[in-house]
Protein 1
Amino acid sequence: MSKRLMLTGNGAAAWGARLAGIDYLPAFPITPQTEIIETIARWIDCGVMDARFVTLDSEHSMITAAGAAAATGVRVFSATSSQGLLYGMEMLYTVAGWRSPFVLVNVSRGLASPITLEPDHNDIFAARDSGFLQLHCSTCQEVVDGILLAYKMAEDQRVRLPVIVNLDGFYLSFTREPVDIPDANQVARFLPPFDPLNQGFRAGTPFNEAVAVLDGSAYSYFRYQAHLAAMNAEAVMAESAAVFAESFGRRYPAIESYQCDDAEVVFVMMGSFATKAKAAVHRLREAGQSVGLLRPFLFRPFPATAFREALAGKRGVAVVDQNLAPGLGGVIHTELAAHLYGHSGDKPVMVSFIGGLGGRDIGPEEFFEMARITQQAAEDGHPPPPRLLYTATELREMKKMQAIALHLGGEKRV
Amino acid sequence: MSQSRFKTFKDLPKEHLLGTGTAMCAGCGGLEALHEVYDILGEKTVFINSAGCMTLLSVYPYTPFRGSWLYTSMASASAGAQGVRDAMDILLAKGRMSAAEDMETVVLTGDGSAYGMGLSSTSGAIERNLHFLYLCYDNEGYGNTGQQSSGATPHAARTATNSGEVGYPGFKKDLFAIWAAHAPSYVATVIGAEPLDLARKIDLAKTLRGPRLILALAPCPTGWDFDPEETVEIGKLAVQSGVWPLKEYRNCQIVHTKIPQKRIPVEDYLKRQGRFAHLFEPKRNDALLQEIQNRVDHYWAPLERQGGSERERG
C-alpha cells in the first residue's frame, strides 16, 4: 500500500534510500544534509532497514568507500553537501571511472568563500564533468522518485555509472511537503535487487579494478567508454520513467515543460527555485505575457535534443543560473548555448541572469523584469552581458552592513 | 617464536606467487618485502593500493597478482579497504557470497601516503576496528616522484628537495607509535632482508582480526643512491646498526623480535648510501654523525640497560 506523508526533502531522500533497499551507507555529516544520514541510521538501528552504516573520516573517504563497496557488489547510497562534495571531488572522478553504480544525494549549498549554509548550484556543477550523472529535484516527491529512477539508470548494463540526485538546501531539504510513498513491493518490482554483473572481488575470480594505463590511447578508450555510457543514460532514463509512470502514475520527462507550447519567451531554471519561476509564469500570463518555463530534471547526460525541440521557434530564452562561473557567467546558459547554436534554423535570443546565489530570493518583480529584458533583447537582437540580480533595497542594506563593519574595524585600529 | 611454523629458512615458501617483470626498479626493497609477504598471505587477497611506486605493478592489461587489486587514490586506500571489507561482510551475511570466496583485504601503500596524506583515512579505519592488513613499503621519501622528503625521511638524508649540507632537517615520524596509540590488533616492523622474522610476523598477523600494520623498511637503490645488488646488505645493516628495530605490538605490549647482539656504528649503514655522502665528504660532519648515533643509542638504552634481557618472541 502506498501512503502519504508530510516529509522534508531530507526525509524524502531517506525514504528513497529505504525503498531502494540499499545495503550500505558510508556517511559523513554536513549541513544541510545530515538529517538524511541520521534518519537512515535510526532506521537501521531499530531494524526496519537491513543495511550497514559507517561514518568515515571525510567525504573523500566516504566516496572512496562508496565506490569500493559498489564495485564489490552491494547497493550503495550516500549523501553530502557543498564543501563535502568538493572535498570528495578527486574521488567523484575516480569512482565514476571505476564504473561503480551507486546513488549520491547532494543537498546543494553555496561554496566558500564566504562560507554560507544556503543553497546554490556551484557545488553540484563543480561535479558536472566528473562522470556522475545528475538529476535535479524541485519537490520532495521528486526526491523519493528521483532516487529510484537514479538506481535504475546507474545499474543499467548500458550505463553502469554513479548518479547524483540533487536537492536544494533549506528550500527543499527542510521544507515539508506531502509525499506519496510508493508501496515497497511495487518498488521492488520496479527496482529489483542490484545485479553486480561481472563486477566484484571474490577469491578464485581475480579482478583488477582501476589499474594504471600508460598511454593516451588506452586512457582515451576508457574515457570515451564512460562518455558513451553516460549518453546511453538518456534513453535508459526515458524507458525507466515510462515504466515508473505506469507503475506509480507520476511522469518524469528529462525536461519539465510548463506553459511552453505557445510561449514567446521561455525561462530556463533548475531545482526548487524553478517553482518560483512557475508562479511567476502564472502571474505573467495573467498580465497577458506569453511566457513559459523549462526545467531540466536530467542534467547529465545533458538533454540537448529535448531542449532544441522545446525551444524551436521561441523568440527569447531567459536562463536563470543559480550559480556563477566568475569571468564567464552562468553554467546552464553556456551549456544551452553550446547545444542550441551550431544547428541550422532560427534561434531564440538568449539572455543570461544570475540569481539565487547563497539562497538569495528571486522575487516576482524580478521575473517580470527578466521577461522584459528578454523581450527587448529578442526585438533588438542584442542580449546584454550576464545580469546579476540585485535590488536597490538589498544594496542599501549591504551598504549599512559595510558601514558597521568599517566603523567597528576603525574603532579597533584607533 | 617457538610456536611459529617458520623455524629456519628451509621452512619459507618454496613457491612464489607474485609475477615477475614488473616496472619496479632493480633492487627494490619494497618489492622484495611484497614478494615475501604475498607468499605467506596467499592468493586469496585483494590489494587496495594508494598512489606510489607500486601503483605501477598493475598496468593495463598486465598484473603480477594472482588475486585482486583496486587502485584508489593517494589519501584514501584505507577507506577503499573499508568499502570492500564492508561489502564482502554484507554479501556474506546476506548469503550472496560464500565463505570460500572471502579474501584478506590488504592495503598496499608507500610511506608518502602512510605517514602523511593517508593518515586520516587510516586512523578512521583503525578506530572502527576494520579487519584489514596494512602493508607500508617505507623507502623514506616520495620515491615514485624522485625521492623528495616525506614524513618518513630520516634526519640529515639528502633528498630531491633537501640538497644542502645538512640534508633533511626534520626527523622520521614514528608511524609504529602512531598506530600503536590506536591500540589495534597488531603492529610490526619488518624488512625484506630478514625474511624469517617477516614470515613469522605475517603468519601471526593472518590469524588475528582487526587492523594490522606491517611496516617494511624498503631500501631504495634509486632514492637512497646505492647499487641495486646491495639491497639485502643495506637492509641487514639497518637492523644491525639499530636504525630499524624489528619489533611488534600486540595486546598493549611491544616486543623486539630481533635485538642486535652488538650494534654496529650507524655510520657503517650511512656511508653505504649516497644520500648520506655529504656527511663524509668533502669534510666529515662529526657533529651530525654523532647526533644521529646518539638518537639510535637513546632508543636502545632502556633495552640494553636490562642487559638486552627483553624476551625475544619465539
Protein 2
Amino acid sequence: MDRTLVDFVKALRTAEVKVSPAETLDAMHAMNIVGYEDREFLKNSLGLVLAKNPEEKETFDSCFDRFFTFDKFQSSMSDEMEDDTSSAFDDDGDFDLSERGENQQSGKGGGQGGAGGGGQAEADLEESTLQPTSALGKLLMSGDRTELTIAMAEAGREVEVNQIVVFTQKGLYTRKIMDAMGLKGLQDEIGELKAHGGVPQSKLSGKLKKARDQLREKVRDYVEKQFFLHADESGKQLREELLKKVKLSNLEKRNFKDVQEVVFKMAKKLIAIHSKRRKTYRRGQLDVRKTLRSNMQYDGMMFNIKWKSSKVDRPKVMCICDVSGSVSNYSRFLLMFLYSLAEILPKVRSFAFSSDLGEVTELFENSNLEDAMSKTMRDYGNGSTDYGQMLTDFKNHVLDDVNNKTTVIILGDARNNYGDPKAEILREIYDRAKRVIWLNPEPRMSWTVGDAEMKKYAPACHQVEVCNSLVHLERVVANLLKSVS
Amino acid sequence: MTLKNEAKLASVEEIQQNFEELHYICSLQIATAVFLAYHLEKPILIEGPPGVGKTELAKTTAEMLDLECIRLQCYEGLDEAKAIYEWKYGKQLLYTQVLKETLAEILDGAKGLTESVAKLHEFGDIFFSEDFLEPRPLLKALKDPEGCVLLIDEVDKSDHEFESLLLEMLSDFQLSIPEIGTIKARPDRKPLVFLTSNNTREISDALKRRCLHLYIPFPDAALERQIIEARVPEVAEKLRNQLVAFIQELRDMDLKKVPAISETIDWARTLILLHTESLDPDLVRQTLNVILKFQEDIETVEAELQSVTNKALKES
C-alpha cells in the first residue's frame, strides 16, 4: 500500500498539488490510523494532510477519484464478460438461462437422448470440461474479475506505466502490459487449439480470442487512465515552458488563453516573493533629535542610538505601449503582466499610442483584459507609428505627474517612419523620472537598421532591453520589483 | 497522547455525535479533522469564510473534552512578549530593592568586585527563573498539567515574523527561552492546537506543512437546517426551511459579504422575537440588516426581494 500511496502522491504532484516528503509521511501515518476500509473516511483524511488550500482540495478530490477507481472498473468488466458469456451461449443453442440452469438442462437432454438440442448440449458439456492450460487463459476463463484487475495493475506496475509521457506511448504500454500478463502463453495456446482442429477446441480458442480482445480493450482503457493521471499535466507543463520561450508575436489567438494562464502563474510567483512587507528600512544617517529624545530616560547618556531611515516605496509605474500592428501582441502581454501584479504594484498608469497617445488606465482597471485590449486596439491601434507625436503628447499631458518615484516603461520597436524622433523630450523624462526602461521586441541587431531610432533614444534611458518572450517579460518585471524592495 | 476524556475521540462518528450534543453540527470532514489532529498529534489550520464556525469548533472541542481553551487572538504587531512569555520586570525590580539589605549581608566580608560577583554567582540566576516569568498563552498551553485546547485565532492577521515563531511550537510542541532553556509539553498532554485564518493573506508553506488543513465552506441547505434546529430549537420547521432556503439563495447572489451561519442564527432569533410564522417580503425587508452588513448589499437584495422570497418559499 505504501507504494500505491507514493504513486498517488506522484499523480498529485503532476496535477500541481504541492506535496512535500514530510506530508507524504504524514499521509502514511494517517493511513495507518484510518485504515483503508472506509473509502470516504480515507479520502477525507488524506485530503486534510495532503491538500493545503481550496484549489488543491478540488484537484485532490478529482485526482483521488481517478486514481482509486478500481471497483467501478471491475464491475463494468464483469458486466461485459457476463454479457459475453451469455451471448456465447445464445449462439450455441437457445439457452437464455444461467450456467447452472444450462447444465441441468443439458443433463436432461442427455437423459432423453435423441433430440438435436440435446446433442448440442452434450457438446457444450464436453467443452466446459476442456479447460485452458495457460495461466492467463485460466484467469480469463475463471471469470474472477478481481484477480484479473489485480493482475493488470501489477503488470502495469512492473512495466512502470506511470512513466508514460506522451500519448503516442499508449500502444507501447498496452502491449507491454499484455506481455507482462502472459499474452504469449495465451497466444500459443490459441494457436495450438486451432491446430488441433476439433470442435470443442476451436470453440474454446474462439472464446479465448474474444476474451483476449476484450482484455486488450480493458488494458488500453487502463493505460489511458494512467496517461491522464501521470502525463497529461506534465505535457501541459512542457507546453507552458515552450510558451514562455516562444516569440510573443508568433503566438496565435488560440494560444492566448494558455498564455494568460502562464502569465498569471508567473505573476503569482512574483507576488509571493515580493508581497512580504519589510520592516527594516534602509538605514540612513544618525538622527540626532530622535536619539536625544529617546535617551533622556538614561540621563542623556547616548545609549540608544536612532538612525534616520528611509522607507522604500513601491514604484509608480507608467507604461507606454505601442499598439500598432507589429508590436501589439507584446503590449498585450506586458499590460496583462502589470495588471496581474495589482496586488504589489498598485499604481500602474498605462498609455497606448500608435501616433496619438491616450491613457487607458481606467479601461484596464474596470473591464477584463480581453475587452480592454480590444477597445484599446480599436481606439489607438490604427495609424502609422509616430514616436515624436507620442512624446509630445506625453510631455503636454503627463509629464507633470512624473517625479523621482516614477518608473516609465516604454514598449515599442522605435520605428518612427523617418519622422522626427524628438529624443530631447525623452531626455526630459529621463531627468525627472526614477527610471526609464525601454523594451524593444526586435533583436539588438536591427535596432539601427532602417527607420529604427533606437540609437537616439537609448542614451536617454536607464535601461534598454530586448523583450520578445514571456521569459524576458518576467525578467524585466522582476527587476522592476527588485530595484524597489 | 492521553487526555482525560479520550473516549470521546475514539471514532469519527463518536465525535460527530458528541459535537451534536453540544449543539455543534458538523460535516464528516470536520469530525475527521479533529479525529486525525488528536491521533496524529498535529495542529489543524482551519480556513473558510467568516462566520462558518471556525473559532466555535475549537471552543466546542474544549467543551467536549472538558479542557481549558486558551485563546491567542492574533493582530498586527503581536510579538513573543505577548504570545510566549515576558519577564516580570516590576517584580524583579521590587525584589532587588527589598533584598538590598540581605544582599549586603551576603556580600559581607567579600573583598573587591571579583569576590563579590563570585559570591553572587553561587545563587545562580534567581532573578531569571520561572518565578519571574509571566507565561503568555503559548507557554501556558504547553505547561498546562491537564492538557488543553489552544486556539490561535486569525493567524493571517499577524506578521510573517510571528508565523515563523509559531513553527517550533507547532512541530515539536516546545518553546525555547534563552535564559531558561527549552520548555516541552508533557508527551502525553500535548495541547490540541487549532489555528484559524480568514485568508486575508496566504499563510506560508512552512506553517501549512506542519498542520492538517481543513477548509470549512458554507454548509449546504440540509446541514444548515440541522444547525438552526440545534441552535435555535424554537423555530418551527416551516419557518426554518424557508429561512434557510432564503439564505442559500442569497449566497448565490453577487454580494460584498454573503451571510454566514452566524448571521442565519441571528436572523432566526430575530424572527422568533418578532413572532414570525412564515416569511414575507415586508418582514424580510425590515430585518434585512441582520443578515447583510453593507448598505450596498441591502440595496441589491431589496431590488430583487420579491423574487428571492418567492423562490425561497417555493423551495422549502
